[in-house]
Amino acid sequence: MKILVTVKEVATVEDEFEIEGTEIADQYLGADLNEWDDYAVEEAVQLQEAGVADEVVTVTIGPEDCEQTIRQALAKGADRAVRVWDDSLEGVDLLDVNAKTEILSAVVEEEDPDLILTGVQAGDDSFGATGVSLAEEVGYQWGAVVNHLEHEFDGDVASVRRELEGGVEELTDIELPAALTIQTGINEPRYASLRGIRQAQRKELDVKNLADLDVDESAVDSDLELTDMYEPESESDVTVWEGSADDTAAELGELLRDKGVAP
Amino acid sequence: MEFGLSEEQQQIREEVQRFAENEIVPVAEEYDTEEKYPHDVIDKAAEMGLTGSYIPIDYGGAGYSILDTAIITEELFSYDPGIALSIVSTSFGCEAIMNFGTEDQKERFLEPVAMGEKISGAAISEPDTGSDVSSVSTRAEKDGDEWVINGNKMWITNGTVGDFFVVLCKTNPDAQGRYNGFSQIVVESDRDGFSAEKITGKLGIRASDTAELVFDDVRVPEENLVGTKDAAFMQQMQFFDETRTAVAAQGVGIAKGATRAALEYAQDREQFGQSISEFQAIQHKLAEMATDTEAARNLTYKAAWNVDQGNDITKLASMAKEYASRIAVDVADEAVQIHGGAGYVNDFPVERLYRDAKITQIYEGTSEIQKNVIAREMLGKGF
Ligand SMILES: Cc1cc2nc3c(=O)[nH]c(=O)nc-3n(C[C@H](O)[C@H](O)[C@H](O)COP(=O)(O)OP(=O)(O)OC[C@H]3O[C@@H](n4cnc5c(N)ncnc54)[C@H](O)[C@@H]3O)c2cc1C
């Protein structure tokens, strides 16, 4: 089985920051591998260690700067990486789901994986749609918000557990080829080992532009426009009950349920 | 001349930071207060390959250079020196086996250390032997095909948790010259007659295990002798460049951590209606701390780079060790000062760094000894 994992370098923001126009000012930004992707990579590497997968390939859309972040996945055990970048992507502020879908589906066609693992969402722009949209485009089955994947595959069927709202979970069998969007907590991502980091430097990292993938430049045009960015005023609200725990616990429980904190 | 780190080295730094923030920071205060050895953290560090990172790949290590190792040491020490020392010291003594050991010794001793299955130690100091290493009195006598060892070793890192120790012993009391007649012998802690007593009440690095070792007619096979009989002193000397550079990296790390903590606190704390970081007195402290740390780092990296090139750098290594350890103590002191009263209790990490910093001026040759070495080299006096 071949697994393709989509990975992304995301912007991380310091606790205190300032907004300039529609962007967070540069000096407050850092970069890291998207948290959800870290879990997706771990899941893929575990499947490889379990002898289920023969090859784990990562794919990202990003400039050369992000290679160091992408190598993290190689250091943790992915076999090779594909990075897509193009001059036409250079000036794009917002790469929307459609554009990502088109670019990634071209890579899926080339790689022809049995299983695609993506993060549920990216920590920075949080569209939360790329995985499913990609599956739809390439005609794969999909499972969203997967928080458990059976490592014993029954033929061409993946047994997954999905997280629904309100603490409800669902068990589903999904026929391969399929795309699963991976939720945090599905596993415990490892640290890249020192040996892994060393080996990662020698692993293949293939760079492709849109022409290489037969994707038209118009794919990157977006219908979406970012119009504003601001910090919402945060309000804090306190409820105090007078009386003994016996009398007030039920009220607290009711409130927590109301607010959606407790099921 | 090249001053930049490679992409791989940057990646190592980042992954070690991630490890330290998640696995060390949350438990650092607990291990310090309780003065207990961080077995759990060591296990996780071993999985990542942080134990024995310089051990060659053929023996299960990562085969990292002295500069790579210095970067790892600096990062770990910037978060918590006690746990950091526990991690980097798991392979103490192994450098002798790596450079002078037989193939069989390398397989027996290096591999399990690299895999995180065993912990080693280097036993040189004794109750009456500190700076003057030539006064070692622990005796190893040959009996058939065994060495019989008697004596006491003092201040031994990993003493009660170690699986084996590379012990500096006197093997030929009749040897001419004060540096002759010593050998390095591996003693496993499960040998009869070996005992270790933990030393408690340390000022700092309290997570690290320190003990007195007692050898009472301990018998080990003759093949446990490392390198050449009676030539241990010369062997030991070869690692000073490496081990002193490593302690210099510890100092850089402590200074880095103290600066980071002070910078954060200075921006948060308000007095006289403004952040204390607005006061020039505080700004100048921060500027000096950062500059001193950078200077110490450059000296340390230069020493590490030279060791990796195979150059002999007795003077440079001593300079790096002496300077970086002094900077560690100074910077930690200023960091506490910037914290005011809050720096005097263990709510913030600077109180611990302040206590931890001092050891870097003592072990691996005191600051006075380093200056002796530097001056001796300058004056062309040999050793
Ligand atoms: C926490 C800890 C861990 C340690 N780990 C180890 C270990 O793993 N293995 C090991 O073998 N040892 C270890 N040591 C021992 C350490 O290396 C010695 O403490 C150190 O070498 C100093 O020796 P000493 O304590 O006997 O001091 P002394 O040599 O008695 O020195 C006392 C003072 O006299 C000064 N002095 C001595 N000689 C001279 C001179 N010629 N010129 C000027 N000044 C001089 C010293 O600089 C110092 O200020 C450890 C010590 C500690 C505290």
From TrEMBL, chain A:
GO molecular function terms noted in the UniProt entry: electron transfer activity
SUPFAM superfamilies: Adenine nucleotide alpha hydrolases-like
Domain called Electron transfer flavoprotein alpha/beta-subunit N-terminal: residue spans: 21-217
Keyword Transport: yes
Matches recorded under CDD domains: ETF_beta (cd01714)
One Pfam family here: ETF
InterPro entries: ETF_a/b_N, ETF_b, ETF_beta_N, Rossmann-like_a/b/a_fold
The entry's keywords: Electron transport, Transport
Assigned protein family: Belongs to the ETF beta-subunit/FixA family.
This protein's name: Electron transfer flavoprotein subunits alpha/beta
Species name: Natrialba hulunbeirensis JCM 10989
Automatic annotation (TrEMBL), chain B:
Record-annotated Acyl-CoA dehydrogenase/oxidase N-terminal domain positions: 6-117
InterPro entries per the UniProt record, alphabetical: Acyl-CoA_DH_CS, Acyl-CoA_Oxase/DH_mid-dom, Acyl-CoA_Oxase/DH_mid-dom_sf, AcylCo_DH-like_C, AcylCo_DH/oxidase_C, AcylCoA_DH/ox_N, AcylCoA_DH/ox_N_sf, AcylCoA_DH/oxidase_NM_dom_sf
UniProt signal peptide: none
Acyl-CoA oxidase/dehydrogenase middle domain residues: 122-218
Record-annotated Acyl-CoA dehydrogenase/oxidase C-terminal domain positions: 235-379
Keywords: FAD, Flavoprotein, Oxidoreductase
Pfam families for the chain: Acyl-CoA_dh_1 (PF00441), Acyl-CoA_dh_M (PF02770), Acyl-CoA_dh_N (PF02771)
PROSITE patterns: ACYL_COA_DH_2 (PS00073)
Family assignment from sequence similarity: Belongs to the acyl-CoA dehydrogenase family.
Name assigned to this protein: Acyl-CoA dehydrogenase domain-containing protein
The species this protein was found in: Natrialba hulunbeirensis JCM 10989
